[in-house]
Amino acid sequence: MKICVCIKQVPGSSKVDIDEKTGVLKRSGAEAKLNPYDLYTVETALRIKEMLEGLEVTLTALTMGPPQAKEALEEAYMMGADEMVLMSDRRFAGSDCLATSYALSQGIGYLGGFDLVITGKQTTDGDTAQVGPELAEMLGMPSVANVGRILAADRDSITVEYDMPESVNVARVALPCLLSVDRGRYSPRLPSYRRKKKLEGAPALTLTVDMLGDKDAAHYGLDGSPTQVERIFPPEAANDRTVFDGTAEEAASLIYRSLTADKLV
Prior knowledge:
Elements: E1 2-6, E2 9-11, E3 32-34, H1 36-51, E4 58-64, H2 70-79, E5 83-87, H3 97-110, E6 116-120, H4 131-139, E7 143-153, E8 157-164, E9 167-174, E10 177-181, H5 193-197, E11 205-207, H6 248-261
Parallel strand pairs: 1-4, 1-6, 4-5, 5-11, 6-10, 7-10
Antiparallel strand pairs: 2-3, 7-8, 8-9
C-alpha cells in the first residue's frame, strides 16, 4: 500500500517580508518550520501504517516550495516517513489554493498515484483549509475533512472519526481516498536521532514543471492562480497608553470618565 502525506513549510514567525507587487510572502531565506497541522498529518499516517501490520506500506512525504522546504521533508523522514519528494521550481511560486492543489495532483500523478493521501486541515500561513478537498477533487478521490481519529484500516477501506460543528461522526471510506487531518487527537512523536543519522543516504526526489504530465507553466504559480492578493500589510501597532494614579476608587472613577468621554460606555 502506498500512502502520501502532503506537508508544507511555513514562516517561523509573523515577521516575514512581502513582495509589494505580487502580495506573495518572500519565503527564501526566511525563518521557517513545518506547518504545525502537518505534525499531526505525519503522526496519523504513521499510526495507519502501524495498523496495517502485515502489509507492505510505503509512506511518502511530498511538499512544494523553495529548496529550503526540504527541511520539512527531513523532519517528516525523521518521524518515520520512507521517501521524500520536493516539488521545487520558480514557476510554482505564488500559487494560490487552486494552483497548489493542481500542482500537487500532477506530482502525485508523476509518482504513480497512492492508495491514501493525507493532508493537514490547513496551514498557518494561509488558513484556508481548501487544498485538501480541492486536491481530492482533482485526483477523483472521495475525501473526509476534519478527521480526528483513525478507528480501523485495512487494504480496502479506512474508518475515521471526524468533527462536525455540533457532532462527532464516523465514516468508512473505500480506498483510494484523501483525509484532511485536524490537530489535537494524537501527540506527534519526536524525530528519531537514528533516522536523522540516515538522512545523508536518503536524498529527496526533486520534481520540476518539466517533469510533470502537464508542462504548461500557465497552469502553475501566479499565472495559474485565479485568486490574486489585492493588498497585504502588517497590522499597525498601537503603543499609546494612559496611566491612572491614585487609589483603586480614584483610578476606577478616572477610567470610567475616560471611557464615557470616548463614548465607549
